[in-house]
Design goal:
single chain, 325 residues, Quinone Oxidoreductase, Chain A, domain 1, 7-stranded mixed β-sheet, 6-stranded parallel β-sheet
C-alpha cells in the first residue's frame, strides 16, 4: 500500500511517499481502508517535538473509512462499518485503529467531513466540556478562530448555547465564520483585543479562553478573563513558548489554566472520555447542529500542496487528503 512518511532534516520537514506492507490489526484493533484523512498543524510544527531529527515516521493522525478486518478482541464493531477515528499513520491506504477509537460515521456527513472530526473535535470537547466546563450563555474567546480547532470550538460552543468572540487577522475569514455563528469578530492577528472584550462583556470578562496562537496573546488573555475564568492552551503557531503570567490576577480571580495535549497520555487515558463524546457531540453532528467545515480536499498525491496551503494560513476550517480510489 501507499503511505506518507516524514522526517526533519536541517530544521525542515521532508515528505516521502513509500510503498509499504498492509498492516495487520492487533487483538484490540481494527483495520480500516481509509477514504480520507485530515491534516493537523501540530504534526508538521517542528517545535511540537512529535518528530526526532533525522528519523522518518509514518504520518497522519485521524481519518475515516471502512472496516475490513477485526482484531481478536475488537467488540461493538463489524466488517463493513463506516468509521472515523484517531490513528497513527493516517496518510495511507490502510490503517490500524484502536477499536475503542473507531466511531460510527453519521450518514449525514461525507468521509471527508468525518476525517476532520476525531482528533480536532475530541480536543475541543476536552477544552470546552471536560476541562472548560463551558455553560450556555457564557462568553468564550477564541484566539485564531479560523484554524481547524478554532472553527470546531466555535461550532461546538454555539451548539452548547455559548456566546463566542473570535480573533483573526483576516476580515474575509471572519466574514465567513459569521455564517457559522460567530457572535463577535475582532480583526487582529496578535494582542490588542482586551479592551474590546471587556467592553463587550460589560467589564466582566470572558468565562473561557481557547488560545490556539501562543505566547504573544497569553498575557492579554489573562487580563480579560472573568472571575473563575478558564484558559485552554492548545497551540503556539506564533512560535512563542514563554509568556508573562500575572500572578495577582491568577490568585484574585481564581483562574484555571490547562493544556489539552495528548502527547503524554496513555491509550487508556485518551479513550477515557470517548463515551461522553459519543453521547454529547456526535448527535449534534448527525442532526446538523454542528457541521464540520472542510475548506479544501486534495488528492492523495498532493500532500505537499495541502501542507503548503495549511502553512500559508489560507484556509478556514480543515484541509483534507482524499485517498486513492
Amino acid at each position: 500500500m501507499l503511505s506518507y512518511w516524514m522526517q526533519t532534516v536541517s530544521n525542515q520537514s521532508v515528505l516521502e511517499l513509500r510503498e509499504t506492507a498492509r498492516p495487520t490489526p492487533g487483538p484490540d484493533q481494527v483495520l480500516v481502508h481509509l477514504h480520507a484523512a485530515s491534516l493537523n498543524r501540530g504534526e508538521f510544527v517542528i517545535g511540537h517535538g512529535l518528530h526526532k531529527s533525522g528519523v522518518a515516521n509514518a504520518i497522519g493522525m485521524e481519518g475515516a473509512g471502512v472496516v475490513v478486518e477485526l482484531g481478536a478482541n475488537a467488540r461493538g464493531i463489524k466488517i463493513g462499518d463506516k468509521v472515523m477515528g484517531r490513528c497513527r499513520a493516517a496518510f495511507a491506504e490502510y490503517v490500524c485503529m484502536d477499536a475503542r477509537e473507531a466511531m460510527q460515521k453519521p450518514d449525514s456527513i461525507s468521509f471527508e467531513q468525518a476525517s476532520s472530526i476525531p482528533l480536532t473535535f475530541l480536543v475541543v470537547h476536552d477544552m470546552l466540556s471536560i476541562q472548560g466546563k463551558l455553560k450556555a450563555d457564557e462568553w468564550l474567546l477564541i484566539n485564531g478562530v479560523s484554524s481547524g480547532v478554532g472553527v470546531a470550538a466555535l461550532q461546538t460552543a454555539k451548539a452548547m448555547g455559548a456566546k463566542v468572540i473570535g480573533t483573526s487577522g483576516s476580515p474575509e475569514k471572519l466574514a465567513r465564520l459569521k455564517e457559522h455563528g460567530l457572535d463577535v469578530a475582532l480583526c487582529m492577528r496578535g494582542p490588542g483585543f482586551a479592551s474590546q472584550v471587556m467592553e463587550l462583556t460589560d467589564g466582566v470578562g470572558v468565562n473561557l479562553v481557547v488560545n490556539t496562537v501562543g505566547g504573544t496573546v497569553f498575557a492579554e488573555d489573562i487580563s480579560c478573563m472573568a472571575f473563575e475564568g478558564r484558559l485552554a492552551m492548545v497551540g503556539y503557531v506564533d512560535g512563542v513558548l514563554h509568556a508573562d503570567l500575572d500572578l495577582q490576577a491568577l490568585h484574585a480571580k481564581r483562574l484555571k489554566l490547562f493544556g489539552v495535549s495528548n502527547k503524554q497520555r496513555t491509550p487508556d487515558q485518551r479513550a477515557e472520555f470517548l463515551p461522553e463524546f459519543r453521547a454529547e457531540v456526535l448527535p449534534a453532528i448527525a442532526d446538523g447542529r454542528i457541521k464540520p467545515l472542510v475548506d479544501q480536499v486534495f488528492p492523495f498525491d498532493q500532500l505537499a500542496q495541502a501542507k503548503a496551503m495549511m502553512e500559508s494560513n489560507q484556509h478556514v476550517g480543515k484541509i483534507v487528503l482524499r485517498m486513492p480510489a
